[in-house]
Amino acid sequence: MAEWDYEVFWREILNQMRLELEEQEYSIWFNSLEYLKAGENTITISVPSSFYRDQVRLRYQNRIETILKELTGKELTVFFEVIPRKRGEPGPAQTEETGKISPEWPEPGSNNRQTPKTPEKKARHPQLREDYTFDKYVIGENNSFAVNAAIAISRNPGTAYNPFLIYGGVGLGKTHLMQAIGNYIHESSDTKIIYITAENFLNEFVQAISENKTNTFKNKFRYTDVLLIDDIHFFQDKPGVQEELFHTFNTLMDSKRQLAFTCDRPVSELKKISERLMSRFEQCLKVDLQPPKYETRCAILKSTLEGQGVLVPDEVIDLIGKNVSTNVRDLISALNKLIAYTKLMGQPITLENTQQQLRDVFASPRQANMSIDNIQRVVAEYFSLTPNDLKGKKRTQNIVFPRQLAMYIAHEITEYSTTELGQAFGGRDHTTVMHSCQKIEDQIRSDPTLDSTIEILKRMIKEYSAKS
Ligand code: ADP
Ligand code: MG
Q1: Other C-beta atoms within 10 Å of 120: how many?
Q2: Ligand nearest to the CA of 197
Q3: Residue that terminates a domain, selected from 274, 289, 304
Q4: β-strand 42-47 against 34-38: which pairing, if any?
Q5: Residue 108 contacts by C-beta under 8 Å, 6 or more apart in sequence?
Q6: Phi and psi angles of residue 317, each rounded to the nearest 5 degrees, phi first
Q7: Which of 12, 64, 119, 263 has its CA 20 to 30 A from that of 337?
Q8: 38-75 per-position pLDDT tens digit
Q9: How many domains does the chain have?
Q10: Does ligand 1 come within 6 angstroms of the Cβ of 332?
Q11: Within 13 A of 196's CA, how many CA atoms are on the CB side?
């Protein structure tokens, strides 16, 4: 079949994908792809970097091949060939190499009003980590929606997705993603940006009061263009600072400034936050970060290795990727532990010394320690109850639901039988446990947010068990 036929199909694929995807997502991934050539049963598309290649493969290859089959009636395989883009200016050659999303991408067709005008690098923002950029943030199915929204915000702060809130468990990349927004805006404009943890916001507030400088404090936070506050769950049970934040929030929103927050749980699970501040948080566009799946974990490991000059065999990446599934922080620290050891010993990294060095990490003491007791403690605390409430006889709704949830989680993450679980929950019958699990499953189907609450609780239980 002649080559031009295939190009027609490629155009049709682009049309189809444009219909299936959000504009933002389409332009990020598909604007950078170009038809290259075809063989009898293959079609080759150029991608600007190996990062793009891996991501596009992961996300769209199956879909593209399915559409191709529908169009041609043939099983065609799509190949992606890396052809770094030529640029007029010297530009970030490294970025092209590593293939991360740099603020300049994607260019064709995107009306990016904030493309940096000067090639020289700006001084870094004092409160932001230089390496917390989009460039270094690996995208997987666990975070793609959050990342796309964050990129959109970075391009046009204070417009579409405002206020913005990122939530998810510890070590899943909330701080990195939020700071990436800050870094991007900082690099591409002279916008005033403040990044602060909730804890430091409180500290500065308390200090301002004690020094009679509350006006200075108010002016600082109410006259910024972008305000990023990390870990807002810290504001729970702190009414004074909540009041202050409420007013800051209103002033900034009224003047169309960008607000973004992170939180370790869904907003609806926050306790002891004033009603009116809660309603403000509820107003946010909320995106959650889930733990990455195996493929993304491997991509993160590879990305962490880039530029380090350390040779790590693929089978070692695979081993770590398979065994460390808790969160990104644990994943990266396992890799760093291995690198540190082999450097110290002057040894190459092999499957054997990986297995040996990361034995403890892989053996997952977290899993082993996961007692029913720990589950009860964590779930009870999360709902401001005591473990005895969960084991007791009271049947008020505020206790019944957490009790059922604790049983459901225990059933999912431990090997105990329903009879044993019933025993551990105050001597209940095994049918009660089964009924509870069924109830929660039904609720998950009708309330999709429950799933992420459960994920968060599971992670908290793991964290707690690792420490105990
Ligand atoms: P959180 O604030 O949710 O606890 P962090 O943002 O501190 O998590 O992330 C923990 C570590 O994992 C950081 O070193 C961060 O750079 C890294 N990290 C998290 N998500 C990603 C990702 N998608 N790609 C690359 N690195 C990531
Ligand atoms: Mg954080």
Answers
A1: 5
A2: 2
A3: 289
A4: antiparallel
A5: 31, 32
A6: -55, -45
A7: 263
A8: 888 889 999 887 777 877 888 899 999 999 888 888 88
A9: 4
A10: yes
A11: 19
Pair of tokens at residue 85: 């883009």
User: Do the beta carbons of residue 281 and residue 160 sit within 8 Å?
Assistant: no
Q: 271 CA to middle of ligand 2, Å?
A: 19
Tally of CB atoms within 10 A around 31: 15
% of the chain at pLDDT higher than 90: 57
Looking at the structure, tell me whether residues 282 and 356 fall in a common domain: no
How far is residue 451's CA from residue 444's CA, in Å, rounded to a whole number?
Answer: 6
Tell how far the Cα of 115 is from the centroid of ligand 2, in angstroms.
28
Gap between the Cα atoms of 35 and 80, Å rounded? 10
Single residue among 82, 117, 133 that ends a domain in this structure: 82
Q: Where are the beta strands (DSSP E) in 318-387?
A: none
Q: 230 CA to middle of ligand 2, Å?
A: 7
Residue 448, SS3 per DSSP: helix
Print burial letters for 292-323: b (CB count within 10 Å at least 16), e (below 16).
beeebbbbbbbbbeeeeeeebeeebbebbbeb
User: Is there an atom of ligand 1 within 6 Å of 51 CB?
Assistant: no
Res 418: pLDDT: 82
Residue 195: nearest ligand to its CA? 2
Q: How many of the other CB atoms lie within 10 Å of CB of 407?
A: 29
Containing structural domain, residue 49: 7-82
